[in-house]
Amino acid sequence: MRLSTRVRYGCRAMVDLALHAGDGPVALEVLARERHLPDRYLAKIIQDLRRSGLVSSVRGAGGGYVLRAPLDSISLLDVYEALEGPFCPVECLDDPDGCEIVEECVTREVWDEVQKSLNAVLKSVTLADLVRRHNEKAGKS
Length: 141
Hints:
Blueprint: H1 5-19, H2 28-34, H3 39-51, E1 55-58, E2 64-67, H4 76-84, H5 91-94, H6 107-124, H7 127-137
Antiparallel strand pairs: 1-2
Helix pairs in contact: 1-3, 1-4, 1-7, 2-3, 4-6
């Protein structure tokens, strides 16, 4: 099981926006350059993040993108769900009626644990946490 490129790039862009929080809007080209992301692909990702309400766009000279909420209120789960929808490793967790063996299936229980665990981890990590981690790695306090 792997996270999609959309989610990975989206998280990288959100971290960059978090690092620039308070500095004003960040241009798409700056996000792409600083996070080593393809411009066109990032533009599509940013639009989905904007539609979900995680970022706002600012038009005009000096425009770009800003976060719409405080860093400690945006989790990686929010980013994941904005780009991919709810995490669900197998269809039968969303639609138990679609499976003929749902009652006796022992692997479904494991997939349910995986879903709950991943959601809990992603929900527990905020952009504020990632900014702190970044600053620690960069030797900043």
